[in-house]
Design the sequence.
């Protein structure tokens, strides 16, 4: 069963998205039941570097501990982490995050590809990557990296996405394990 | 994609052959930088990349430059600069002489931002800005004070958000696609190579700015560098870090008190 595969195998679940993905998360987060057995990491393209309100907005939707990542923060199961604006978010082998303010990738910083590839490197098959709505091809290469490493890949069904381009690109480039609407994602994550 | 052991081999080469120590850099980031160079410079194999690095001193220059991240901008995080204007500079006004150290200044955009703040607080005449970096190439850019025109609009917006009220374009002269910042600012700057991994403290400062440099180091190296800063700061001096960096994991944190909500600390012990 999909649920068993996720819960038993993933130490980390990554969610990447761009335009139209905030609404998805506002529906998804309240449906998660504590305790989570994995660390949930959210990487979104954001407009402004000074926009800290997104973490506050998400925090209202969950009883799980949620924080915007600072350099060298420890990665703990049951916690939700949000990539800060204007930095790439990387995963270290010692179970901490590190940040990187190098060039944008796919016109984006944070780039979904960067975090997904870095996590695939560390977690291998114990990783799930979910890609949501967006108008950019970021995330496709990252999902491929997760798949190559033996992890689970999930893409939001393009028909249910506000902007279908990002999930469409991912479906074209990777054969994701699941293509799901929000309810489908909720049941898999539970 | 480079393997973990290959990263170790390459970093050991850099240390043994050239004395550049990247072994305590944050691993995930340095690995990504090496992969990026491998792709950009189209090496067919790791062995070829390694051979080139070991034997070609010209290529090594490029390699080290690209390994380190030199992305910077003027008045990045305007609220940080607003706090410098409001909380830090007033506390330095009474000093006969103000020494500022920009550690890891890259191409110098933040040094010019600081010089503008000091000028507007009427403190520039008695200030000296020491700007250091590992790469001589980026220091050369900083020393010239010549930058691309394109991002100036963004910088000007940042400047206004930081509390700047003058005409930002008055600080430079534009020619074609470039601008040159006024010599009134550069005259107060001293540029020098300094390696935070291996070099020591070289002066005592009233303010040290080291923003988005520590994120590239592992915790052990971060602690070493923060201790170096601590040794270079007098009592009641200030330390400013990047917006996602922290003193939390360091042994020096008890001696410092955070100023407001920005990443600025004051040495109180």
Sequence:
């Amino acid at each position: 069963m999909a649920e068993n595969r996720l819960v038993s195998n993933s130490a980390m679940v990554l969610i990447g998205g761009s335009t139209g993905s905030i609404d998805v998360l506002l529906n998804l987060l309240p449906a998660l039941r504590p305790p989570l057995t994995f660390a949930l990491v959210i990487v979104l393209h954001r407009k402004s570097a000074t926009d800290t309100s997104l973490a506050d907005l998400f925090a209202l939707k969950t009883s799980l501990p949620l924080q915007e990542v600072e350099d060298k923060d420890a990665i703990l199961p049951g916690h939700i982490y949000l990539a800060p604006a204007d930095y790439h978010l990387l995963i270290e082998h010692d179970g901490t995050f590190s940040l990187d303010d190098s060039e944008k990738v796919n016109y984006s910083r944070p780039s979904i590809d960067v975090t997904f590839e870095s996590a695939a490197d560390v977690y291998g098959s114990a990783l799930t990557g979910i890609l949501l709505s967006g108008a950019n091809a970021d995330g496709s290469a990252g999902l491929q990296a997760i798949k190559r490493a033996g992890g689970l890949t999930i893409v939001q069904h393009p028909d249910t996405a506000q902007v279908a381009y990002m999930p469409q690109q991912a479906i074209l480039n990777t054969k994701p394990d699941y293509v799901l609407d929000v309810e489908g994602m909720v049941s898999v994550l539970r | 994609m480079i393997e973990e052991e290959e990263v170790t081999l390459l970093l050991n080469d850099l240390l043994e052959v050239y004395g550049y120590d990247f072994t305590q850099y944050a691993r995930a980031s340095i690995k990504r930088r090496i992969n990026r160079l491998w792709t950009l410079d189209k090496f067919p194999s790791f062995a070829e990349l390694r051979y080139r690095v070991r034997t070609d001193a010209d290529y090594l220059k490029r390699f080290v430059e690209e390994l380190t991240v030199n992305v910077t901008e003027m008045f990045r995080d305007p609220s940080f600069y607003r706090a410098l204007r409001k909380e830090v500079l007033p506390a330095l006004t009474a000093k006969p002489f103000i020494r500022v150290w920009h550690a890891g200044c890259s191409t110098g955009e933040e040094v010019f931002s600081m010089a503008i703040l000091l000028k507007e607080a009427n403190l520039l005449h008695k200030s000296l800005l020491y700007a250091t970096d590992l790469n001589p190439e980026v220091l050369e850019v900083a020393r010239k004070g010549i930058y691309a025109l394109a991002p100036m609009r963004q910088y000007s917006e940042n400047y206004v958000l930081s509390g700047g009220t003058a005409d930002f374009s008055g600080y430079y002269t534009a020619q074609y696609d470039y601008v040159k910042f006024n010599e009134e600012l550069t005259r107060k700057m001293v540029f020098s190579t300094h390696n935070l991994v291996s070099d020591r403290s070289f002066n005592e400062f009233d303010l040290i700015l080291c923003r988005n440099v520590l994120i590239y180091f592992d915790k052990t190296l971060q602690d070493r560098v923060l201790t170096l800063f601590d040794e270079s700061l007098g009592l009641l001096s200030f330390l400013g870090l990047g917006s996602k960096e922290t003193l939390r994991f360091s042994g020096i944190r008890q001696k410092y008190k955070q100023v407001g909500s920005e990443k600025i600390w004051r040495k109180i012990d």
Q: What stands out?
A: Chain A has a mean pLDDT of 92. The beta strands of chain A are 12-17, 39-44, 66-68, 80-82, 88-91, 97-100, 127-131, 152-156, 178-180. Chain A has one domain: 2-130+142-189.
